[in-house]
Amino acid sequence: MALPIYATPLERVWHKTYLVICALIFLFLIAPILIVIPLSFNAEPYFTFTEKMLSFDPEGYSMRWYDNLLTHGMQFPNVLRDGAWWSDMWNNAQWIRAAKNSVIVGFWATLLATSLGTLAALGLSRPEMPYRKLITAVLLSPMIVPVIITATGLFFFYSNPCSVLGPLEPAGGCGRLTSTYLGVILAHATLGIPFVIITVTATLSSFDKSLSRAAANLGAGPVRTFFKVQLPLITPGVVSGALFAFVTSFDEVVVVLFIGSHEQQTIPRQMWNGIREQISPSILAVATILVIISIALLTVVELLRRRSERMRGLTPQ
Amino acid sequence: MSDTILRTADGKPLKAALMRASAVARRRAFMLVLPLLAFVLITFVVPIGQMLSRSVTNDAFSANMPSVVAWFAANPEGTEPDEAAYAALVVDLVNAANARTIGTVATRINYDVSGTRSLFTSTGRKAKNMEAPFKDAVLAADEEWGDKVVWAAMRNASAAVTTTFYQAATDRKLTDEGVYAKAPEDLRVYLTLFWRTFVLSGAVTLLCLILGFPVAHLLARLPMRISSLLMILVLLPFWTSLLVRTTSWMVLLQEQGILNNMLVYLGILEDNGRLALMYNQTGTIIAMTHILLPFMILPLYSVMKTIPITYTRAARSLGATSWTTFRRIYVPQTIPGIGAGGILVFILAVGYYITPALVGGATGTLISNQIAFHMQDSLNWSLAAALAAMLLAAVLALYWVYDRLVGIDNMKLG
Q1: Considering only CB atoms, which chain A residues are within 8 Å of B263?
Q2: What are the chain B neighbours of A258 within 8 Å (beta carbons)?
Q3: Which residue from A26, A156, A272 is facing B233, i.e. has the nearest CB?
Q4: Which of A101, B234, B315, B342 has the smallest number of Cβ neighbours within 10 A?
Q5: Residue B72 and residue B154: Cα distance in Å, rounded?
Q6: Range of the domain at B33
Q7: A191: exposed, middle or buried (Cβ count in 10 Å: 0-12, 13-18, 19+)
Q8: Is residue B3 part of a domain?
């Protein structure tokens, strides 16, 4: 972004200042995220850089908080690290349990949100779709409505889900969805749906319809056209929608706090407890791992976007 | 002579055939959406509907005290409770004590008139030994039964549908005369909190705009190769867990945290004069601005990207200074982006819960935190539902404005 040659000296000074301001804002955006990474290797239980860390003394750094992630909650953390230790860790360590829960809930919620969401996006992007605006507004609203409201509503609904049947409700109800995996999964799927709809509809809007017609012309039925022509082209959009849905679930804490129990402890919930109760640098170790995961996810989404742009570039406009 | 209606090959009127074909196409499109629509209706719309009905449902008292409810129905408002009223009260108290529902009843009245919980439970225990005249017997058990407020609260609780919780949510309380009136200024908890939520959200939105505008402008003007690299700096916070970002700010803003340490080290602050950056509004504003900034930058960027540079060049060649060009030519073209980003950030800020709960302390919490408090700690679910309904109304109004301004189908991610 070069200045034009006719720029006055004052404008040149302002331009430099402007670049500095932008650099500072970028620093504001990124520094808080990166700062946790070195701090998570702190040898002391502090949340700030110690003298030793600043002088790059190896003694100032350690992996103890990462180790703590594995041992916290174990029955016998201080024995020899043999097979029994690892299986103890795998079954009892609290953070491992939380990670397993997060992955289970995230997987099913993503599967549900992506399959239903892609199907709906296909319908919504057809020109004949009736009430498109209203239905889109309803389907996207879980993203707009504050999660605390959703969680409050779900809390009432999950206490007696059969009430939705009205007069058909069986006497004595049919159990509850609070404190169940199913309840958390359904809620997380709902929260992830808007992201799937947005990404898939965006991909479909640039989809060249003449390709489907060409396939039909060459004798493919609607199902075959979908799987052979349409789906491969919209796959990047579907996958990034799925990633969004997974991240939404993976990062969600309010719903889990309201309708989950100790049984459904996920990573964010464990972090939330950790921050509020016994704050230890283990939280920073978890944060570092999550930052690395988000860097990986961002890379994947970015690659998918480029791939989809490339694929679209091949189709004649 | 055949009619002039166009017909298809098999002799049907063309218009009817077209109508049928488009009806089929519409039905097909709708069938694709139907599973998801049904899913969202059940897991999202119905629960919120139940929450709304909860905010006006008032059966804690009316379901357990039928005789008193019947007396209220027979006697208009303002009637002094007579012997019949006290007799009904005793009957209900005995039944409620036997059915162990008296706690529910007491809690319900306690919402309106605090300190009446024990009045119900203790009189409930004595009620089964009471004999006529009941008025004297009840008043002998506890003087407070003669209080107008208690009867007003019970009358008020006897309706199956009520606005009581909305009255409470707007800081209107039962006075000693038994009517609702605004609480004194210093006791208006919820209105203050709603006001604070909107003011803080406005401040966060404004800060996001001030910080987001130059960055979006830079990204839109730089060559694609460099801007897509810099874009990563915007998208990475967007993809990073909310709790991670909040934790980072806690680490930075603490009294013994990095920011304060740096300021002390540089000699800007005395060691005992460290700034309180966290557990107050400052903390909430800083952390929320950081978290919501990408939601401002992305819409601004996508609008700025489409503004051709030729307009500013034309303005300059016609003699405008760079400031005039910016103010009169460039900014007006970015208004759609400012609107989209501003409303989006404001909507998200109004409902924030996690970040204020962790860094907000006592003065930096928002209305969501109060909803969570009533759901989890005070267990006054109806009041929580009423507060949530009011917040929901505000958010939906903003959503409508957003749709008008931007169009929800134009929402983009990254």
Answers
A1: none
A2: 375-376
A3: A26
A4: B315
A5: 9
A6: 9-43
A7: buried
A8: no
Q: Give which of A280, A24, A287 is closest to B248, Cα–Cα.
A: A287
pLDDT (0 to 100) of residue A49:
79
Considering only alpha carbons, which residue of chain A is nearest residue B323? A11
DSSP code at position B181: E
Which of B214, B372, B412 has the CB atom closest to A202's CB atom? B412
- The tally of CA atoms less than 13 A away on the side-chain side of residue A83 is 0
Based on the structure, what is the number of domains in chain B? 3
Binary contact (A145, B392; C-beta < 8 A): yes
Whether residues B208 and B289 share a domain: the answer is yes
Regions of chain B where pLDDT drops below 70: 1-3, 176-178, 409-414
Which chain A residues are within 8 Å of B381, Cβ to Cβ?
156
Query: Would the CB atoms of A198 and B237 count as touching at under 8 Å?
Result: no
Token pair belonging to A175: 């159990």
Q: Which of B215, B290, B375 sits opposite A258 (nearest CB)?
A: B375
pLDDT score, position A65: 85
Closest chain A C-alpha to B109 CA, distance in angstroms:
22
| A22 neighbourhood in chain B, CB within 8 Å | 214-215, 218
Q: What percent of chain A stands above pLDDT 70?
A: 95
pLDDT in tens, A233-290: 888 889 989 999 999 999 999 999 999 888 888 999 999 988 887 667 888 899 999 9
Question: Residue A144 is nearest to which of B376, B385, B395, comparing CB atoms?
Answer: B395
The rounded distance, in Å, linking the Cα atoms of B387 and B384 is 5
**B229 and B359 assigned to the same domain:** yes
Split at pLDDT 50, 70, 90, the class of A172 is low
> In this structure, are B326 and B256 located in the same domain?
yes
Task: With 0.90 as the threshold, say if the pTM is over it.
Answer: no
Residue A98 structure tokens: 């939380």
Question: pLDDT per residue over B1-24, tens digit each?
Answer: 456 778 877 878 888 888 888 888
Q: Is residue B28 part of a domain?
A: yes
Same domain, B28 and B84: no
Establish if B55 belongs to a structural domain: no
Q: Are residues B15 and B111 in the same domain?
A: no
Cβ A189–B221 below 8 Å, yes or no?
no
